[in-house]
Specification:
Strand order of the largest sheet: 2-3-5
Largest sheet: 3 strands, mixed
Structural class: alpha/beta
Number of helices: 10
Helix content: 40-55%
Strand content: 5-15%
């Protein structure tokens, strides 16, 4: 993902168009929610890594405000402005802050970085831009499968809902998993079973 974003930034900067690039830190509305295991309401929090590394948590609302202001702010033209929150806090410090604010004791689940890394692969912009190289008739004969992540608190689920509906409307094999964005990390076995079934 990071490599893909960097390639997109370089392409934009060399395009000749006016730009303002706003690389944002970790969105707290994503990482500090049940979608990724940070479920304060139920007294649990999933910690990736040892949880001691400070993170500059930022709200997507603040990023949106900066983006809107950048449209008319001349000083922002052709600039890269990194965005973060007012204070860098480790995930474990965030847990203690919730507890101090009245959430009660929160049980933490640690996920080693190596365990997460094993489930990820390089991500490039080609997944959006590279067309399928197949004759029209052959393409229509391919198995088409859509797997939707539908965890209730998944914050960007509404963004993908139209694509899921289009897949259903076009007769794709459609499946749902109660996960957030990283289904391959949250339910790897269930996801693998669906992919294997779709390929046979």
């Amino acid at each position: 993902m990071t490599a893909g974003a960097g390639a997109a930034e370089q392409a934009l900067m060399s395009s000749g168009m006016a730009y303002t690039i706003l690389p944002a830190s970790y969105f707290m509305e994503v990482w500090l929610t049940p979608a990724l295991g940070f479920d304060v309401a139920h007294g649990t929090a999933r910690i990736y890594g040892d949880g001691t590394r400070p993170v500059s948590w930022v709200s997507f609302r603040d990023v949106a405000k900066v983006a809107a202001a950048a449209v008319t702010e001349r000083a922002a033209r052709n600039q890269v402005v990194e965005l973060g929150g007012p204070e860098a806090l480790s995930p474990r410090e965030v847990v203690r802050m919730f507890e101090a604010a009245g959430a009660g004791e929160i049980a933490t689940e640690s996920v080693p970085e190596a365990a997460v890394a094993r489930r990820f692969a390089p991500f490039t912009l080609h997944c959006f831009s590279q067309p399928l190289d197949a004759p029209t008739r052959a393409a229509h004969g391919l198995t088409r499968c859509y797997i939707a992540s539908v965890k209730p608190d998944y914050p960007v689920k509404p963004v993908f809902d139209p694509f899921a509906q289009r897949a259903r409307d076009e007769g794709w094999s459609y499946h749902e998993l109660p996960t957030g964005h990283d289904a391959q990390a949250e339910m790897p076995d269930a996801l693998a079973a669906l992919l294997v079934a779709a390929s046979t």
